[in-house]
Design a protein that fits this description.
The complex is a heterodimer of chains A (201) and B (252). Chain A is an alpha/beta fold and 201 residues long. Chain A has helices at residues 13-21, 49-58, 61-70, 80-84, 187-198; strands at 2-5, 26-29, 40-43, 75-78, 86-89, 95-96, 101-107, 117-122, 124-125, 140-145, 147-151, 157-163, 165-173, 176-179. Chain B is 34% helix and 27% strand. The chains are: A alpha/beta (201), B alpha/beta (252). The interface between A and B is large, with 39 and 41 residues.
């Protein structure tokens, strides 16, 4: 059973429609008690960091998710969900995240390059990944973000993308996974990645 | 490398899909369900869906967005009549990936800031409708019917400062004309655009797309008539653009 975390501010439908289309069982998680029925978790995207964490705290989900992750069950953060896995973010002032991966979330702004990374971009694997098994530079994934993750340990990065600067496209640390792109909106390539997560042993 | 985007424009009048010229003379071009299925099969880069109906009850449009999200395998930007955070949130909950604002932003710039701090800049698209009047572009609101007095360059700078994640510049007089995209607007805004820029209005053939997408600054083109009237498809457009050296996604 895949738990899909509900922040109450965001679009869950893209993810749940995908899971439904693949006949995968899922549960929309609104409170920490529901976590015990799940064997893996997805934290979907959309929203600002501060509002996302506020919503998790209000629902008592923050510590629940941290404990869930510490039990060794797979957790996948998508876009904002990936960023929430980190310790802090500088989006609209400093905010504290779940701290499952050491590091921070910073703006991608650089002189001469747009400060929102929006659209389809290819990725480069930086280590062997349990989720991303298609090592093709020809395939693109859909990104929509203006902040990205900077892990303290570069070994936590599993894929990067290039957009004026190096963008952290995916992180992977034991049972914790994060993707900055939207696999649920990335057609064939994205589908493969999500199916790998759904089938992790 | 980031790819350029081709963004079909879908206008709903509350019942069927329409496409017009200069924001009027709307012709029916299909129904949403079948058109979304076609776009999904063609693996389009993204869709811009706008509610231009006269109905003030937004419930039925939310249902349409829900339906759109259940069919679409591509990112969905949804707009039209967004005047408060609640409705924006309802659209996102119904399945929109991004929301677009136009008229409300011209009346209350802080609304753009509120949207960005609530949903993140990446979810906030601002559409700027304009006409060239006496040698400079003038902003219009309320479906191209009301001229806004604010200076366009100042307006664009403010939108970005408040957190707009993307800007769509839509030339009202070229809309539906198939005469080509506005060649004058890119140099006019070039030095101040810091977020992805989408041009809309006038794309009538693949060379028009090529002309616009060649600009480093232009992230994408939104087009309606090109795909609704005639036998052109996003697949063919992408293949052509790739063949002339534009960075486009390799879909099927």
């Amino acid at each position: 059973m895949i738990g899909v975390i509900n922040y109450k501010i965001n679009n869950l439908k893209s993810v749940t429609n995908f899971l439904q289309g693949q006949n995968l069982d899922y549960l929309i998680v609104n409170n920490p008690k529901m976590l015990s029925n799940c064997d893996r978790l997805i934290l979907p995207g959309v929203g600002s960091f501060g509002r996302g964490m506020q919503s998790l705290d209000e629902q008592g989900l923050s510590s629940g998710i941290v404990n869930f992750a510490k039990s060794g069950k797979p957790v996948l953060g998508i876009c904002l969900g990936m960023q929430l896995l980190f310790e802090t973010s500088e989006e609209f002032g400093q905010s504290t995240g779940l701290g499952l991966i050491q590091g921070k979330v910073v703006s991608i702004a650089t002189p001469g390059s747009p400060r929102v990374h929006m659209g389809w971009n290819n990725i480069f694997l930086t280590k062997k990944s349990k989720l991303i098994k298609t090592d093709s530079f020809l395939l693109d994934l859909y990104f929509a973000h203006s902040f990205h993750c900077k892990p303290n340990d570069r070994n936590d990065i599993s894929a990067i993308s290039e957009y004026g600067i190096e963008i952290t496209a995916a992180v992977e640390k034991d049972n914790i996974f994060g993707v900055q792109f939207h696999p649920e909106k990335s057609q064939v390539f994205g589908k493969k990645i999500l199916l790998e997560f759904a089938n992790l042993g | 490398m980031i790819k350029k985007r081709l963004i079909p424009l879908m206008l709903s009048n509350g019942h069927v899909l329409v496409k017009g010229k200069k924001f009027s003379e709307h012709r029916v071009v299909g129904v949403m369900e079948s058109m979304l299925q076609i776009w999904s099969d063609q693996e389009i880069d993204e869709l811009l869906l706008l509610d231009i109906g006269s109905e003030t009850n937004c419930e039925s449009f939310l249902k349409k967005v829900e339906l759109a999200c259940s069919v679409a395998n591509f990112p969905l930007t949804v707009g039209g009549k967004i005047g408060n955070l609640e409705y924006a949130r309802d659209l996102l909950k119904s399945g929109a990936d991004k929301i677009s604002v136009c008229t409300k932003a011209t009346k209350d710039l802080s609304f753009v800031g509120n949207l960005a701090s609530e949903f993140g800049s990446q979810a906030v698209v601002t559409i700027v409708d304009y006409k060239w009047v006496n040698g400079s572009p003038k902003i219009y609101s309320n479906h191209a019917s009301v001229q806004v007095l604010q200076d366009m360059r100042t307006y664009l700078t403010e939108l970005q400062a408040l957190g707009a994640g993307e800007i769509v510049l839509q030339n009202i007089e070229l809309e539906g004309s198939k005469k080509g995209l506005d060649q004058l607007i890119v140099p006019y805004v070039e030095d101040l655009i810091e977020v992805p820029l989408i041009l809309s209005g006038g794309a009538g053939n693949f060379d028009h797309l090529k002309w616009a997408l060649q600009h480093e600054l232009v992230s994408g083109v939104a087009c309606g008539s090109l795909f609704y009237f005639g036998d052109n498809s996003p697949i063919r457009a992408r293949a052509y653009l790739r063949s002339v050296g534009i960075a486009m996604r390799k879909a099927r």
